[in-house]
Amino acid sequence: MLNPVTSEFITSLCSRFGEDILRPTSDLYLEEPRKRITGHAGAVVAPRNTGEVSAILSMCHEQRIGVIPFGGGTGLVGGQIMAVDQGVAPLILSLERMNGLRAIHPSENVMIADAGMTLAAIQDAAESENRLFPLSLASEGTCQIGGNLATNAGGVNVLRYGNTRDLCLGVEAVLADGTVLNNLSRLRKDNTGYDLKNLLIGSEGTLGVITAASLRLSPKPARVGTAILVVRDPEAALELLAIAREISGDAVSAFELISGIGMEFARQTLPEIHQPFAQSPEWSILVELGVPAALNPETLLEDLFVAGCEGDLVSDGVIAQSLAQRQEMWSLREHIPAANKKIGAIVSHDISLPLSELAAFIPHGMAEIAKIAPVRVNCFGHLGDGNLHYNVFPPQGCNASEFAPLRDDIERLVHDLVHAHGGSFSAEHGVGRLKAGELTRYGDPTKRAMMLQIKQALDPRGILNPGAVLS
Ligand SMILES: Cc1cc2nc3c(=O)[nH]c(=O)nc-3n(C[C@H](O)[C@H](O)[C@H](O)COP(=O)(O)OP(=O)(O)OC[C@H]3O[C@@H](n4cnc5c(N)ncnc54)[C@H](O)[C@@H]3O)c2cc1C
Prior knowledge:
Layout (H helix, E strand, L loop, with lengths): L6 H11 L4 E2 L19 E3 L4 H14 L3 E4 L20 E4 L6 E5 L4 E5 L4 H10 L2 E2 L12 H7 L6 H4 L6 E7 L5 E4 L12 H5 L8 E8 L1 E2 L3 E9 L2 H15 L3 E8 H10 L13 E9 L5 H14 L3 E6 L3 H21 L6 E3 L2 H18 L3 E5 L6 E7 L13 H14 L15 H7 L2 H14 L13
Parallel strand pairs: 2-4, 3-4
Antiparallel strand pairs: 1-2, 5-6, 6-10, 7-11, 8-9, 8-10, 12-14, 12-15, 13-14, 16-18, 17-18
């Protein structure tokens, strides 16, 4: 049983760390991007360094006060937000002040950063040393590297560089009782016992507060080329991906599926976003290649286009001829979530499937959903990773709220179908609070039992992110 944040507790925080340790308990910390949950908090604190995080957690452990680690607040599964009916108002511990670059070692391709640095700041710091930190998400201006690690975020470059887990060499983290784990390794090889960094990555704030990370950088590709190609269907897109990998020497850094519905949503709601085609094609892909100086990415993309046309996979396309055109193409892809938000989804799914199941799943799911209601599905995402955002919208002219009673049925149907196809109900957003029930339903019971044992060992009083992941 957890205790509330009392005025005595706040007074002792202020006397120990100064009054400015507190942040106003504003909507910034109590709303999530899709506004599906409104949170509550006993107080919000923003420590300045790992020592303060340690001292605060030790006080919370002692007094059995629940703590939610808070990064940029862009999480989409309610991990950073606890609704009023989900438990005693917790202490929100924001990493926003811990946003310094600790060190960069260009010759080692390593950067050590505080957890509160935004992803965009991490990318800029790498760029300033002519290096690449390849993690890239539409929320990168706001999300923090600590949040990215806690959720093991994916994004558009996973195909080539892996997800956040693959970009991390070590972490510094504070455990529930205030103990600090110093594991800011710069080593690529270190087989000395359990891989605790990988236990914390993806743990969504339930096992420790990540305070810093050692990150793996890459050399920047000398030349980058981008194209949007109209494909026959998702099956053709997957065949095209195999060709793209072959002709580029596996230099495909992004391969994003865009549906006609998604393009139309952007056309309707964001007219300032450049559209590559006069009419929205039913399916297209955004492909990006990053190649060495000796290769010409535009020529490779032309070869891909020709091979795609010859194989009846591709019917039209645009190859970016300038940085501005590349940015326009990415802007369209990255604004699809914003356009979705303006249209208003009934329910969104972040699913992954084995690549060989994916093409069959897309129409199968749509046909099954159509039996429940005449809705529209905007299916888009990181096709090369088998990761689809499969978001369901009301028919034209209707409001999502009219379909709210069908929400759970549609979600159950999609997740059951994904499970039957050997997929996952959460490809990259995590479990948080919104999908904790799904983990119980679809997860392997032994895995869940092991997770509970690990939680019990590292956080015996259950103060860290109570109710998230393991409900
Ligand atoms: C427009 C948009 C696009 C997105 N695109 C993608 C995408 O392509 N791929 C993808 O994977 N996600 C995507 N997301 C989801 C989100 O941006 C990621 O999950 C991101 O990694 C969350 O980081 P954050 O700093 O905002 O974390 P928060 O939202 O603050 O927190 C998320 C979870 O991590 C925990 N946490 C945060 N910081 C720490 C810390 N330092 N230590 C321990 N636990 C912590 C929280 O308790 C919570 O459980 C998108 C979101 C939006 C709004």
